[in-house]
């Protein structure tokens, strides 16, 4: 049996502001942005540059319960792990574009890592794994 994790949904307040952050700030590619009329929502998929794996669905929160989870889908833990082939290039680029890092770079047994917040406060690891 072959399986893979295809898409992860990330609750967002607004599609367009989320697209600006992920595409213009983080440099992700907008793969799909389709309106689903019967559900009055958009199917918005972004991926990091060069990605051949999991995709990120920017899912607009609907109602109080979903809205209360925006920016805190995991109770304050790091939520997503962004691997890179050049940590320092991406770290410097993101800082120059205003991305807020809440844990400075560190050399760990598994690689170079720093923690940043997305525009809603979700925590991400930026990691260059050791080979």
Fold and architecture overview:
Helix content is 20%, strand content 43%. It has 131 residues and is α/β, with parallel strands linked by helices. A 4-stranded mixed β-sheet has the order 1-4-3-2, covered by helices on one side. The chain has a 4-stranded mixed β-sheet with strand order 5-8-7-6, covered by helices on one side. Strand 3 (41-47) and strand 4 form a beta hairpin.
At a glance:
The chain has 131 residues and is an alpha/beta fold. It is built from three helices and eight strands; from the N terminus they run E-H-E-E-E-H-E-H-E-E-E.
Characterize the overall form.
globular
Assign a percent range to the helix content. Answer: 10-25%
Supply the helix-strand structural class.
alpha/beta
The spatial strand order of the largest sheet comes to 1-4-3-2
Average predicted local confidence, pLDDT = 96
- Head-to-tail CA distance between termini: 27 Å
The ordered string of helix (H) and strand (E) elements is EHEEEHEHEEE
Secondary structure topology:
Layout: E1 7-12, H1 15-25, E2 29-36, E3 41-47, E4 55-60, H2 63-67, E5 78-83, H3 87-96, E6 100-108, E7 111-117, E8 123-129
Parallel strand pairs: 1-4, 5-8
Antiparallel strand pairs: 2-3, 3-4, 6-7, 7-8
List keywords for this structure.
131 residues; 4-stranded mixed sheet; globular
